[in-house]
Design brief:
The chain is an alpha+beta fold and 309 residues long. The protein is built from six helices and 16 strands. A hairpin with a 5-residue loop joins β11 and β12. α3 packs across α4. The N and C termini lie far apart (37 Å).
Length: 309
């Protein structure tokens, strides 16, 4: 983070019915206890301890329908790791062994060590995926394709029917100030314009079987989930024209899925260690049950990205 103020976790706000909330610090706060709302409204907590998750539930089958930093090189802990972008499977990958662990599919992916700014995770993930496939991008270039829709800075209210975040159309553009507004975000339908602008084939994905097929074909997955795949409070995003999107209160995040086996999904995360989780790695495993549950918080917002032809 660029300053000490950004490193402090704020006291959770009091959320009374009809109250207006506008947070200005990092959304990456562990679980629902830091959200200032009843934990009864949150999904079950799924703790993450660094590169591997400890003591999480056994994965289920498919449960779904249909801070400022600098780039780093790809991680290399042993000779078993392929270099980023060198894998060119067409239909199905052979099993890949990484540091003694064999995955059904795995694509070594560029490591971006830290986000461009506090709330740029969607763009950081796009950058990692593009660079893995040999295309260099900047934040300004990606923003140029996605654009902004800021009729006002997004804010949240507790309503009788639950939490609502009011803001521009995140399905069409980025909404919010990416340097301070904890609700700032966009969705896959907007970020795909950046991928397509650089000639990347893009397809939507919304099921476990689709994820497995895509990763097995050497594609990389861009997806919206929660920070550290932790508990979340389901929240509705409402635009001025009445369009709604499923989201979470303040631990919204974006990561890349880069591999899997029967038990886990392998995640590449640009956020890395922060005051909310000093053990967070740039790569870690998430059990399928946690992956599907937290991905569902965004309405299964995901894209599969292929290498440009």
């Amino acid at each position: 983070m660029s300053s000490d103020s950004h490193n402090r976790v704020p006291n959770p706000p009091s959320v009374a019915s009809g109250s207006r909330i506008q947070l200005s610090r990092r959304r990456a706060i562990f679980g629902a206890l830091a959200l200032g709302v009843s934990t009864a409204a949150a999904r079950p907590a799924l703790a993450v301890e660094g590169p591997e998750e400890i003591g999480l539930p056994t994965p289920d089958t498919d449960s779904g329908p249909g801070g400022t930093g600098q780039d780093g090189g790809a991680g290399s802990d042993g000779n078993t790791r392929p270099e980023p972008g060198n894998q060119t499977p067409t239909t199905a990958m052979d099993p890949v062994t990484i540091d003694g662990r064999t995955y059904t599919a795995y694509t070594e992916t560029f490591v971006k060590q830290g986000q461009w700014d506090l709330y740029t995770c969607e763009f950081d993930v796009a950058h990692m995926i593009m660079k893995t496939f040999g295309v260099e991008t900047t934040l300004d270039e990606l923003l140029g394709y996605v654009g902004f829709d800021n009729p006002f800075q997004p804010y949240a209210e507790q309503t009788p029917s639950g939490l609502v975040i009011y803001g521009g159309d995140i399905g069409e553009a980025f909404c919010g100030d990416l340097t301070y507004n904890t609700f700032a975000k966009t969705r896959g339908s907007a970020i795909r314009r950046a991928f397509e602008g650089f000639d990347f084939p893009v397809e939507t994905v919304s099921s476990r079987s689709g994820v497995e097929r895509g990763l097995g074909a050497g594609k990389l997955m861009w997806l919206k989930t929660t920070v550290d795949f932790t508990a979340y409070v389901p929240t509705r995003w409402l635009t001025p024209d009445g369009t709604t999107y499923p989201t979470v209160y303040d631990n919204d995040h974006c990561v890349a899925a880069i591999g899997y086996d029967d038990d886990v999904v392998v995640i590449r995360d640009a956020l890395g260690p922060t005051n909310t989780n000093w053990e967070r790695g740039y790569e870690y495993e998430v059990p399928w049950s946690a992956f599907m549950d937290c991905w569902s918080s965004s309405g299964y917002d995901g894209l599969l990205i292929s290498r440009p032809s």
